[in-house]
Amino acid sequence: MLTRLSRFGPAFPRLLRQTQARCVSQSKPSGAGSAAVTDLHAPSAASAHGEVSPYVKNPDYHGFSDDPAVDEWNMRIGFFFGISVALVIGGTFIHYLPDNGMRKWARREAELVIQQRERDGLPLIGENYYDPSKIILPSKGQE
């Protein structure tokens, strides 16, 4: 399967290994045979500085910072502004958008015309909606 997926580029096997390394249960060991997170995430041999994965230092790593306190604070701030404020301000903005297609204006205008015609004693819609003198009908020969 790895040879089939390697057509996506030379970096795919490396990405696959990184993804497999991150898919680790964060639950506490329940007994014999359970491995701790630190056992599964040993320092990388290729690194000259002995760097440890952020998941080892902070099992609740959110990807904002290496420091666990700053990481959690940045995650909370990011989600607050990204979700709460966006929903509230976005919903308010959408609610107060101008009348789409002027539908409300058209209804108010129609109600005013109806009230005016009722006040004048005229029918709401005349028998001849269009002025008959302005309608040009084809002659018998053009039909």
Automatic annotation (TrEMBL):
Q: Does the keyword Transport apply?
A: yes
List, alphabetically, the GO terms of the cellular component aspect: mitochondrial inner membrane
Q: Which residues form a coiled coil?
A: none
| Keywords of this entry | Electron transport, Membrane, Mitochondrion, Mitochondrion inner membrane, Respiratory chain, Transit peptide, Transmembrane, Transmembrane helix, Transport
Name the membrane topology term.
Answer: Single-pass membrane protein
Membrane spanning residue stretches: 77-98
Q: What is its main location?
A: mitochondrion
Which InterPro entries does the protein's record reference?
A: NADH_UbQ_OxRdtase_ESSS_su (IPR019329)
A Pfam family (short name) is: ESSS
Please state where this protein is localized: Mitochondrion inner membrane
What is the protein's known function?
Accessory subunit of the mitochondrial membrane respiratory chain NADH dehydrogenase (Complex I), that is believed not to be involved in catalysis. Complex I functions in the transfer of electrons from NADH to the respiratory chain. The immediate electron acceptor for the enzyme is believed to be ubiquinone.
Q: Family membership, please give it.
A: Belongs to the complex I NDUFB11 subunit family.
Quote the subunit structure annotation.
Complex I is composed of 45 different subunits. Interacts with BCAP31.
This one is known as: NADH dehydrogenase [ubiquinone] 1 beta subcomplex subunit 11, mitochondrial
UniProt organism field: Neogobius melanostomus
